[in-house]
Specification:
- By secondary structure, the protein is α/β, with parallel strands linked by helices.
- The chain has 3 helices and 7 strands, in the order βαβαββββαβ.
- Strands 3-4-2-5-6-1-7 form a 7-stranded parallel beta sheet, sandwiched between helices.
- The N and C termini lie far apart (about 35 Å).
């Protein structure tokens, strides 16, 4: 069954997504980062080319021919993926395809509305019996 991790207290969702996808890549996991719109996807694409500062994270869009070979895939509206290791969701609601992945990460900021929507997603997963874990980034971030 899919395991769901909630990372709360993020000061920057996109930077947190980059950090988590980099960590996953280093441990051999392949990642799909799903965003709600093209502007978020474009911003994430640009950020991944410069993160970390001394390298970059190999990535492409989910519809690209080389998607099967990439450790990180950017998804905006598709539901077909070349791998199902880790999904990082940047959506305000649970995406319908989340259960295809071994692990899902939800990133929540300290913004009141984002926190409220995050609690709704947490309740959704909990009520369906998914294994949940909470990581409070506000206790570890220096930015």
């Amino acid at each position: 069954m899919t395991k769901v991790d909630f990372y709360t207290g993020s000061t920057d969702k996109l930077r947190t997504a980059c950090q988590l996808s980099h960590k996953a890549m280093q441990s051999g996991m392949r990642t799909v980062i799903s965003s709600p719109d093209s502007s978020t996807n474009d911003a994430l694409d640009k950020l991944l080319w410069h993160y970390p500062a001394t390298a970059f994270i190999p990535h492409c869009r989910s519809d690209a021919g080389e998607a099967e070979q990439m450790p990180v895939i950017l998804n905006q509206s598709g539901d077909r993926f070349p791998h199902h290791d880790l999904l990082i969701s940047l959506h305000n609601e649970c995406v319908p395809f989340f259960s295809r992945f071994e692990r899902v990460i939800e990133i929540i900021t300290s913004d009141a509305e984002d926190s409220r929507l995050g609690r709704e997603r947490f309740k959704f997963y909990r009520d369906r019996g998914y294994e949940l874990r909470h990581i409070d980034l506000s206790k570890t971030q220096n930015t």
